[in-house]
Specification:
mainly beta, 116 residues, 49% strand
């Protein structure tokens, strides 16, 4: 059974930075494209960014392009999301999952709150 553990969230002022981590166990991490998702307050979960198995192909939603950077370390079964120039609209619970969100199990997420 896959286990996903997200960390690194917190409260930050607009313009600040955070680095999120996602540790995966129960799956051979390097065999899967991975993604970061977020659920803003009162809204549905949305895709933020994806990264291919070896990191050569990356996707970002338009609203985070140029500010967020997704990366992964297959030796550590860990994925990262460097978030710079944060905006209040980035406030959400951030989750990781397989790139299309197909794993039925989700972690607890990590809360990111950006104050204006």
């Amino acid at each position: 059974q896959v286990q996903l553990v997200e960390s690194g969230g917190g409260l930050v002022q607009a313009g600040g930075s955070l680095r999120l981590s996602c540790v995966v166990s129960g799956r051979t991490f390097s065999r899967y494209a991975m993604g970061w998702f977020r659920q803003p307050p009162g809204k549905e979960r949305e895709l933020v960014a994806t990264i291919s198995k070896r990191g050569e192909s990356i996707y970002y939603r338009d609203s985070v392009k140029g500010r967020f950077t997704i990366s992964r370390d297959n030796t550590k079964s860990t994925m990262y999301l460097q978030m710079n120039s944060l905006k209040p609209e980035d406030t959400a619970v951030y989750y990781c999952n397989e790139g299309s969100g197909s794993w039925g199990s989700w972690g607890q997420g990590t809360q990111v709150t950006v104050s204006s």
